Amino acid sequence: MPELSLSLPMLGTASLALAMAVAVYAVAAGIMGAIRHDARLQTSARYAAIAVFMAMTTAVLTMQTALLTDDFSVEYVAQTSRAASPLWVKVVTMWAALEGSILLWAWLASGYTAVVAFASPNNALRNWAIVVLNVVSVFFISVNAFVANPFTLVPNPPMDGPGPNPLLQNHWMMAVHPVLMYLGFVGLTVPFAFAMSALINKRPGSEWMSQTRAWTISGWGFLGIAKIAGGWWSYEVLGWGGYWAWDPVENVSFLPWLTATAFLHSVQVQERRRMLKAWNLLLIILTFALTILGTFIIRSGVVSSVHAFGDGPVGPYFLAFFLLVVLVSFGLLMLRWDQVRDHGELDAIVSREGSFLLGNVLFLAMTFAVLLGTLFPLFVEAVSGDKVTVGAPFFNQVSLPIWLAIFALMGIGPLLPWRKASHQSLVKNLAWMVGIGLVSALIAYVAGVRKVYPLWTVGFAGYNFASIVLLLDAAIRPRMRISGRGFWSVFGQYAVESRRRFGSIIVHFSVIIMALGVAGSGGYRVDEQVRIEIGESVTLDSNYRLEVVDRFMEQTPYRVAGGVLVNVHRGNRQIASLRPKINVFLGQEQQPVPTPDVLYTVWQDIYLSVSGTVSPDQDFVVLRVVQSPLVAWIWVGAVIMLVGTFYCLLPKRRYVPVPARQAVPAS
Amino acid sequence: MSSADMSSTESSANLAPVHGTNPPHSNNSPHSNNPTRDEGSKTSSSEQNAIKRLLWLIALVAGLASLFAYGIMRNPNRRDNIDSVLVGGPLPEFDMPLFERYHDRFGARYQFDEDGAQLAALTGKPMIVNFWASWCGPCRDEAPVLERTWRQYGDDVLVIGINTQDRSRDNARAFLSEFDLTFPNGVDENSRIGIDYGIFGLPETFFVAADGTLVYKHAGPITQAMIDIQLESMLP
What's the complex ipTM? Predict the structure, then answer.
């Protein structure tokens, strides 16, 4: 386009360069401002953070314009987009490949930095925290600017592109899962930045964590929900009928969630008892470092994975940043070691803080085991040259006992008082919990559950449920006695006034639900291939009957799909019609993508996926039939978890008792 | 139960690795322990400790750096070798269209079934089956090796290439002309063959004995030396 002086590749590259320059300035101004105690420089750094965000927003808008107008002179668009794709696919194609997803990450990072620069109160920690956040922004923008520029100009633009990876364009989750993931990563950068600032300022008290509580909880919530959403996505879209495979890519994104969960719990000990200062700093540094490490592992192909992709120089670049982060942040922690060491002592191991500490150790043990299993093949090959693989059996064997221990601790921990538990109340509570746990396990046993881990899980689910009832009872009964009001009124007041406590109860409840889902689907999944003639039906062992009614074809401008219509019968009743199919996307004919269809029920999912082909000259179809009990509980639990997490974040409000008193005189 | 005992065990198992070397006075001043203000022996000992800890950290970082550097240096597109369950057994049958350039010599399709290769002149010979794609870097490295093998052993061994998971046929054709591959190459339509053969990544190479059983599977780029070793055991 010679007559146009401003092309999109130019505009995008220019805004990246501008963002980069201003971000570097913001770091320099922040550091100078801190060293010289110059408030004007510090303010300038804050405004610069806004400018970086605006420049990055321009870059994002440029990318969106290029995608929506099919401007194939932008390399990223030429490689990942297609003119015929529907609008929403074009919008989300921005994060369908490496360059664009870094752009999204950099944009979110600069956005969070801008919010912190403007919304966080003016105090001793703010300046250095903004410096650290800006350094992180500089890193991500520089990835885009130097090694993975999405705006590279294509001199002879093609007429059309291949479109995004077929696995991605198949499902609306593509719009959601990556964004949630990055919101989680970026959110947890904020407490990391304040922790660094606390170390630099020699103020390793708990101000850094109380100031960033909302960021921590929301970041943790986003990360957890992103993981589960990813699991659901792969269950819905990929043809294998599972949601978790212990693949290295899944593992490395699981690691920061584990350390963040440990952090979320242990900050409470520091807030309450001024203990575990070093531990908390360690956890938040680990969380951030593992985020970068994970991205390095995914992007460098250093560990073999089903989804690994070698993306050129991006891997080493992330590695360098990871090493820098580890060196600087742990180095700083060690320099300040004398200030962060605990001087208080644990009064008793059987106490709230004792249980938190133990839980932390378990979470870290899990982190270590998963990290070890993921990196072990690389380590062995480096040392001896042998090639080994570490598969799901290792991870299951190691993690299931740890999960059960965490699950057990989750029930008893919140019931223990701070400092030291009195034996009487402890024994009484435990008796209830263990009793109900045993009864639940017994019922499960009678109902036919004979496998060890599912039985333990059901037992501990009952035990945890009892724990929640006891917790609520302990909170509500005394309040009822004192105020003389009814149960629901007191319950409402408790729920509104103790938001964090009540939110945590909701989250723990959701964990029970999800644990049952994992136990059921993990322990009792039936996976079979069934060949059915068109018009015939097959009865499964579980008494479901699958009737293949007919084949069908669907055609849209960018996709051709062939599938079968299957009626699912239970007894004499037809309970559902499923339409599993195989898609072929325009430009990606070599990679057909199955779209399974799932009948979700409370007790059992029936999951159908077409294996092989559906063609008019073939009078049968081969279906992969996966029956997984209780899978739906995982998704329902995830929604409950989301509700609980964000319930914790609602602004504090006082409870206004509405009806009772005023209603009486009126009547 | 003596909870006091337990708590003392707990505190002695504190997080500080240098607990023993520090005199107890650091515990006496829990809130005024600003190291920059303290002078004298304590400063130097805590500085020494700080240096020791930093050295540990640097050692850790150096260890991680070298491990990952090793990981990056080896071929980034390599896939770890995963033993195929197919080794020792008969290979799955397949039937694929060949690229146009091979039609004159080998016909339009290549069929591999329980009777072995259906290419008239090539039945009953050992076979090297190579899975590749034009976008795969290591495939470019090994293509000349395979071609050389074919030219050298072509009378005794069938080398066959299967193009799988490629972006487009044109890319694959360009790859074939670039390396001027003369052994037959075909297309894995719908990635069916790759699935049947349990392909984990690209490239992968299967060594098949004359009776159709799989002798050895190699994941990752193959070298002339590996091919020679395998052929030595497979050829009479």
Answer: 0.77
